[in-house]
Fold:
Amino acid sequence: MEVVQVAQYESDTSNEEFVEENYRINENEKLSKKKKLKKCWIKERTLDTAAEAEASILDQWSKYYTNHTENGRMVYYRCNKAKLRGPQCSVSIYLLYHADHDKVTIYKTEAEHDHHVDKVRGIDENVKKCIEELFNDGIMKPKQIIRALQARKKYGSHKISLGELEQRCENNKNIPTDENESFVVSYKILYNDEEYEDDEDVEDDGGNKFRIFISSVRLLGIISMSSHLCSDATYKLVWQGFPVLIIGTTDLNKAFHPFGLAICSNEKTKDFEFIFNCIQIGL
Ligand SMILES: [Zn+2]
Structure:
């Protein structure tokens, strides 16, 4: 195999374009400063047409930037397993569109893939299959599907105990540095009726209660700019069977701006008192 060293800054494009490319390269290098700056490119293969070359790299690579050189146009691709915004994988390729003939040569860096693999998001594949089966069997409504999945008990208990809930709140109550990250602003967990004895509307089911208020720094920032607030419970969006309360404000455009959401085991005076206290804490 032939090893070629390529100077990445060589370019004969207009100034503007060059600045843009340079910026991207610098950005890229900043992110991987610790890695060796000069990449070692290895000739992979040469294909007869551009279409063939482009088709052969479709699934794993995303176009990154272009350099124009005497030898021809060089189009760089990044490993698309890594996110565009963020550290790039060490492995990248470029396609050289030869200036003097139609063939295209693919070069690849001599490096190991080190892209960060995201955790799987969304519904587990097995559960998805299960839902598909149910759907084909005529169980089509969300609630029916949830019930059917619960009945199968294949996927462990979906229920969470108050103790686990308290632990989870405790683990997430620190204010994150990312203003868009959610955290538990305030929570209260009551075991066995610690509070309701002198309450006026005692129509309790007795037992345990909980209240959680979740928001983010950015959403809490909206509070200081608003003059009134709205709150309502959603009975379709439920968590463990409890209504989710959305608290927010409206602007002059009639648009709703949420402050955060709360989950309470009840919807009583004390629960709203808790939420409004949370908002004051948020301020
Ligand atoms: Zn990679």
Summary: The first strand starts at residue 3 and ends at 5. The helical segments are 15-31, 50-56, 125-136, 142-152, 162-171, 217-223, 269-282. The pocket of zinc ion is lined by residues 79, 81-82, 89, 91, 113, 115 (CB under 6 Å). The chain has a mean pLDDT of 77.
